[in-house]
Amino acid sequence: MATVQSSRKMSLASPLPVEQENDLDLVAFTMAALRFVNPWSVDTSNKWSQRIEPGTPEAKDRVITLSEVSLHDTPKDCWVVIYDRVYDITDFLYEHPGGDEIMLEYAGRDASTAFRSSGHSSIATKALDRFLVGELPLHERMYRRPGGIRLSDIPE
Ligand code: HEM
């Protein structure tokens, strides 16, 4: 009776031929190395280790996504979005005439409607500039984009 002979060596521990298992090891090793050198795989919580000084010209040109804003949602690191611009209000929390708690409700989130419906004066709107750290990318904006929501009190 004819028997089929395999020339491939089999390992007792694995159902795969030894050569194929070595190939898999090589693939896993290459993937791990790529993850190590790939900048996109770096933890996003480290992304803002470079501190942005609020209100500087550099801050004006910085594009910050909503998902990045959401990382700054604590009393020690508090960002909000108002009319598509991103503000670091950490140092203002305890100076705010309306109190810190109300602002912390919007930490890491969009506060445009809350800001507007609290009837802030034009002075308050102007004061926003001091805290500016960046602006949302065009595709995430609701106001400052072609065809966006038009309101009389959106600052320049
Ligand atoms: C960076 C953002 C903010 C700035 C610069 C700011 C600034 C101010 C200023 C200067 C006032 C005094 C009244 C005025 O001039 O309008 C005020 C009052 C007030 N703010 Fe804000 N504010 C900010 C965010 C918010 C947010 C997100 C809320 C959320 C609802 C809020 C709620 C209030 C309320 C309720 C008052 C009235 C306090 C009172 O009259 O007793 N503010 N804010």
Automatic annotation (TrEMBL):
Chief location category: membrane
Record's subcellular location: Membrane
SUPFAM superfamilies: Cytochrome b5-like heme/steroid binding domain
Keywords tagged on the record: Heme, Iron, Membrane, Metal-binding, Transmembrane
GO cellular component: membrane
InterPro entries with a match to the protein in the record: Cyt_B5-like_heme/steroid-bd, Cyt_B5-like_heme/steroid_sf, Cyt_B5_heme-BS, Cytochrome_b5
A Pfam family the protein falls into: Cyt-b5
Family as reported in the entry's similarity comment: Belongs to the cytochrome b5 family.
Record protein name field: Cytochrome b5 heme-binding domain-containing protein
